[in-house]
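ingest -> validate -> predict -> emit
validate: passed (alphabet ok, no gaps, 320 aa)
predict: started
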Amino acid sequence: MWRRMGMETSIFCGSGILPARTHSRDNQRMAEFIAPKHEVPEPMSTATATLPPLTAAASTATVPVAPGRPASSYGAGSQPQAQPHDPSKPPVKRQIVCFSFYKVMPEWRRLPSEEKTAHKTAFAEVLTKWNKPGEFLSLTYSTIGTRGDVDMCVWSIGYGVDELNQMRSELLRTPLGGYLNSPHNFLAMTKRSQYQIDRVDESESEGRGAIRPGGQKYIFIYPFWKTRPWYLLSMSERKRLMDEHIRIGLLYPRVKLNTTYSFGLDDQEFVVAFETNFPEDFLDLVQQLRETEISVYTLKDFPIFSCVRVPAMEMLDRLG
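emit:
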């Protein structure tokens, strides 16, 4: 039973505190996980230890979904305010998260078919090269038909900004990279939420600095800003505002949330990514949450990107 509400993860659309249910075979075919890194080793929970190992082919092939609660940035414990690292506790190396959106130039689609195939292959090879078990992972999505300003999304998770920089540089150095624009790019990081749920399960490892991406066919991504008055409210007032918000969120258990933080790293404050096999659930959830009192503290929550999870080569084939 929930005891203290995970406000930070649920304030965006309310589903960050939702238990995920497996309703389709798609959920059992796709999941990847990068475990949190500690300088002082800690025993893994049972749920984390039984996860299938991440392979270099993760972005180009489907794999079984891991069981458990939806990915989020909170775990057990409580922090009333953002605080520096406590030296009495094992340090956690947070994950770097990046959502890169690309638009292919019209000139590329007019190239000979054989040349485009070679370009796709070279691009996919870089993605495969950088999928390193337990260290760096990229998931690929198509946005053809869902947005006019982007064609595809590469969601990468790792432990260093330099690695991310090198990987993106290699993508842009491919022949296809010369035909790509990047209208949107969101950089963020995992961290323990200021608002915790007292629940000791597989989610605890996520609260220490790791997220569990993948597993659903669709993902809805957007940057998020809260108003300055929100940060001046007392914790008790925030909880009061969250009560209705969380109650509504619990009505949509088939929507899973990944929350990441961008304070000082990028323009936005957060980046949220909702995964689901049921887009209609996400639509109804967002519409219903617009009517809550807490929604007045949303400064901005767009642009929204509706993406379809596909292997890397299929993402590239859909470009034309």
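The chain has one domain: 1-80+91-320.
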